[in-house]
Amino acid sequence: MRPILSEQQLGITIKRLAHQVLENNSDLANTVVIGLQPRGIFLSDRIVEEMQKEMPGTAIQYGKLDITFYRDDIRKQLHVANRTDIPFSIENKRVVLIDDVLYTGRTIRAALDALLDFGRPEKVELCVLIDRRFSRQLPIQPDYTGKSIDSIISQKVKVEWDKKEVILY
Amino acid sequence: MQLSTRHLLGIKDLNRQDISLILQTAEQFKEVLQRPVKKVPSLRDVVIVNLFFENSTRTRISFELAEKRLSADTVNFTASASSVAKGETLLDTVNNILSMKVDMVVMRHSASGAPHFLAKHIPAAIINAGDGINEHPTQGLLDAFSIKEKTGSLEGRKVAIIGDIMHSRVAQSNIYLLKKMGAEVVVCGPPTLIPKYISEALGVNVSYNLKETLEWCDVANVLRIQLERQNQVLFSSLREYNLAYGISRELLDSLHKEIVIMHPGPINRGVELDSDVADSKQSIILQQVENGVAVRMAVLYLLSNQNKA
User: Fold this and answer.
1) CA A86, A92, A93, A98 torsion: positive or negative?
2) How much is the pLDDT for B292?
3) Per-residue pLDDT for A163 more than 80?
4) For a 10 Å CB count at each end of chain B, is N or C smaller?
5) pLDDT for res A41
6) A95: closest CA of chain B, how far (Å)
7) What is the pLDDT of residue A13?
8) B186 plus B281 within the same structural domain
């Protein structure tokens, strides 16, 4: 068991991610932020909070997406579905997808399929806290990365939001 | 995370966790139905046959829409236009269909227990869409979903089931489900339409007084008088039934609170429900139909895995 990010580092990293997203998407009227259920929401909540601090008075369009019904492993195991809540149109918008850990890329593949059922965005970007590089099974890369780590399949990365740290098991 | 059963034959076989899981999943499917593209790819690899040996509008269309919105392939079968008319047995009919690689069977049949019989003899997942006077589990689930959506919870909710209890599979499924989820149930109707030992057998209270029952309940689920299943005279005329057990606007207005009115359809307007009650804002009859698709999607989705592997 090895800590990857401590509480302090986690806070700094989240602030940086929020700033980077804002740097590339200065027009918030044309940008929407979408967190992936269930675990990406902890991160997207924090990032949207930081973005709001930086841009007080500007409305940030923030939604939540559940990808359970789009998974490619439904025949192996069913998962409990969570709430999807996207109360705005994503047609011709720039979408920033947020998840906590990027590993095989399969969740993001499902998320892209799910997203297209809501409209045709102008662009989709991916923001993750932890990128487990060299373990991808699909050609998917993040645009914003909190921290890249090298890990092997038998290891697990856990973001402990209540203890506010990231741990490699 | 999965259901404790391979088939949905009746609410009787489900436990609390199963019911909660179905209702919770249905909530997410209801959101899917609000999207620009009301469809998910979950059941792309599943073939479903809809076997309807008995007439149906709502249930058949609802199942078919649910299947299509899950991306399943579907085949429809109506008994009158099939070889059943030539004397083929139920088991032969179904086995012939299954040999064409079908994964799930949705069946409505006029004989109580028909889906249970099939489940014993064939490998596909069976979903009961109504069997005789036994159960109509997806109706029970969609009624519960609608009550929960409208009033917040099932626990402690006071539900009256009114009308032809004797011939109603909807009543039976509703009673099983509501009791399992902690609601209180009263059945109300003329003595000839209420089974004699129902309170001992199913743990419900019986009332023959409509006004008292409505005064007690939060939700009234009004059932259709099923003339097609009655082969003896159980009440003198529809007009008399309407006077004693029909729900009118004046009756509802005389109550001390506003109750929710439900009906599984098809409505006999002017018999069990007056038109101005059925179309009032207290009635959630059309919401029930809307919720039916989401609930059936949940059932199909959760059962789709049970017979693969």
Assistant:
1) positive
2) 97
3) no
4) C
5) 95
6) 17
7) 95
8) yes
pLDDT for A77 equals 87
Residue B303 distance to chain A (closest CA, Å)? 10
Residue B2 belongs to a domain: no
Name the 3-class secondary structure at A99: strand
**Tally of domains within chain B:** 2
Same domain, B177 and B127: no
CB contact under 8 A, A81 and B21: no
Is residue B309 pLDDT above 50, yes or no?
A: no
Q: Which CATH architecture has domain A28-154?
A: 3-Layer(aba) Sandwich (3.40)
Find the CATH number of the domain harbouring B22: 3.40.50.1370
Sheet holding A2-5, edge to edge: A2-5, A165-168, A157-160
Same domain, yes or no: B127 and B156:
no
- What residues make up the domain containing B285? 137-289
Note whether B92 and B149 are same-domain residues: no
Asked if the peptide bond before residue B266 counts as cis, ω within 30 degrees of 0, the response is yes
Is ipTM strictly over 0.95? no
Q: Which residues of A touch B41 (CB under 8 A)?
A: 69-70, 113
Structural domain spans, chain A: 28-154
Model confidence at A117, in pLDDT bands (50, 70, 90)? Answer: very high
Produce one character per residue of A133-144: b if its CB has 16 or more CB atoms within 10 Å, e if not: eebbeeebebeb
**pLDDT at residue B56, rounded to an integer:** 87
> Which residue would you say has higher pLDDT here, A103 or A155?
A103
**Hey, are the CB atoms on A118 and B37 less than 8 Å from each other?**
yes
Residue B5: inside a domain, yes or no? Answer: no
Compute CA distances B48 → A52, A62, B17, B68, B299, whole Å: 49, 38, 25, 10, 13
- Chain A contacts to B (CB-CB under 8 A): 66, 68-70, 74-75, 77-85, 113-114, 116-119
| Integer Cα distance of A111 and A115 in angstroms | 6
Q: Is residue B4 part of a domain?
A: no
Reported as a single tens digit per residue, the pLDDT across B81-132 is 677 767 788 888 888 888 888 999 999 999 999 999 999 988 899 999 999 9
Say if residue B23 is in the same domain as residue B113.
yes
Do residues B165 and B258 share a domain? yes
Amino acid at A94: R
Query: B41 vs A69: CB contact, 8 Å cut-off?
Result: yes
The DSSP line for B223-259 is: PPP-GGG--S-SSS-HHHHHHHH-B-HHHHHTSSSPP
Nearest CB to A70: which of B41, B45, B305?
B41
Does residue B1 sit at the A interface (CB-CB below 8 Å)?
yes
Q: Is residue B1 part of a domain?
A: no
Residues B191 and B73 in one domain: no
Task: Dump pLDDT digits (tens) for B17-59.
Answer: 999 999 999 999 999 999 999 999 999 999 999 999 988 888 9
Task: Based on the fold, state whether residues B91 and B225 are members of the same structural domain.
Answer: no
